[in-house]
Amino acid sequence: MHNLALALHEKGYFVTGSDDEINEPSRSRLAAKGLLPESIGWFPEKLTSQLDAVILGMHARKDNPELLQALALGLKVYSYPEYLFEQTKEKKRIVVGGSHGKTSITAMIMHCLRTNAIDFDYMVGSQVQGFDTMVSLNNTSKLAVFEGDEYLSSPIDPRPKFHLYKPHFAILSGIAWDHINVFPSFDLYVDQFRQFIRLVEPNGKVVYSQEDTVLENLCQESFPGIRFSPYQAHPSSISEGKTFLETSDFGKVKIKIFGHHNLMNLEAARLACMEAGLSNEQFYQSISSFTGAARRLEWIGGGNSFDVYKDFAHSPSKLKATTEAVKKQFPDRRLIACMELHTFSSLNEDFLSEYAGSMDKADEAIVYFNPHTIAHKKLKPISKEQVKIAFNRDSLKVYTSMQEVKDYILSQMYTRTNLLLMSSGTFDGMDLNTLAQQLKE
Predict the structure, then answer these.
(1) Which of 161, 242, 256, 296 could form a disulfide with 149 if both were Cys (CB 3.0 to 4.6 A apart)?
(2) Domain boundary at 287, 320, 355, which?
(3) For residue 99, what pLDDT is reported?
């Protein structure tokens, strides 16, 4: 929400906002632009009929006093994705959907378009190097690139966010059950993607991962007026821990990212860039300098014979892809993989079994969860033994104390060894960069 506020301020709009909690980096970034509220909290008396619109974030509840005042005044209330569409409804929209890889694909497209001086609007779910904000809207662009999340739009709009964008060109990276608190069955979850396809603009195009059987079957269904095209991982090779794209016209192209899942993401991004008007030569020149989105297989430290990576991975499919990627890139190094169960789905005992085998490629696997997080989410408690059984790995180490996790990690030898830290949370606020530096020392 604060990124959208900054984007609209940059566009010349008069922007105000409220929240009952504003943390860093949002607080400093809003303050720098004069947008930080004078007081924290909700102030319904500040809403008047002079406002053009109210944009509602997911944090507000249905009984939020400012929301109730806005509705009583008859003000136009938009959800976040609804307002993005409103701002770009006259533009060509490229939307990246799927259970995994959305942020990385979107970031790759953004990087390549910016490198080639293409003017475009965007929204992405992570900070991308070279971009000041995660949202940008302007009056001159004719193109918009959005990451399409399947989570709900707002407390009063239960539609998945990506149903609001109505793309002309859509990417679907794969379907792996997530958000069990909203979509309690796999079939219901898949149906959200079916509806997304139906909302593609007439004569629009959907490119999809050919490796995903569920997605492949879905795209074989009848969707009149929509074109489909499958994609596979871009051909590549690995040499001395570095990945090279194999191309027919430009030889080997060295890239800074790695992993089969990222080669899938890269090919999807290439197709989107072609749709946006770039040539293959422009794409390959640009993608060679792409370092990745924040927290997506992000290198945070290392030495001569070890590296430390952090990743946003939290669902079973993401854990599996990320763990396999690091092991394949460095096959001669031991891999210690540590993940935090943090999301509603991952801490739900009915979903835990989905994690079976997801960390098998790691030489050592560690799972951490905080019982207080489970209580906060009002979920049934789970035990260490339940987690070990669910992951189907006898050697799995399970901790409920972050200090124990840190002590164990620091006790290991890191000669020809990599450490992979995966979470959508913060490992209870542990400073991962400091940890990486301690390992180096």
Answers:
(1) 161
(2) 287
(3) 92
pTM of the entire predicted model:
0.88
Q: State the burial class of residue 85 (Cβ atoms within 10 Å of its Cβ: 0-12, 13-18, 19+).
A: middle
Q: Of the residues 57, 75, 93, which one is the last residue of a structural domain? A: 75
Backbone angles phi, psi at 286, to 5 degrees: -80, -45
Residues 19 and 54 in one domain: yes
Q: Domain check: are 283 and 366 in the same one?
A: no
Provide φ and ψ at 215, rounded to 5°.
-65, -40
CB of 297 closer than 8 Å to CB of 258: yes
**CA 441 to CA 435: how far, in whole Å?**
10
In the predicted structure, residue 31 carries a pLDDT above the cut 90? yes
Confidence of residue 181 (pLDDT cuts 50, 70, 90): confident
- CATH code for position 429: 3.90.190.20
What's the CA gap between 173 and 374, in Å, rounded? 30
Do 17 and 35 touch, CB atoms closer than 8 A? yes
Segment 46-89, tens digit of pLDDT:
999 999 999 999 888 999 999 999 999 999 999 999 999 999 99
Q: Is residue 292 part of a domain?
A: no
Whole-Å CA distances, 106 to 170, 269, 277? 11, 7, 16
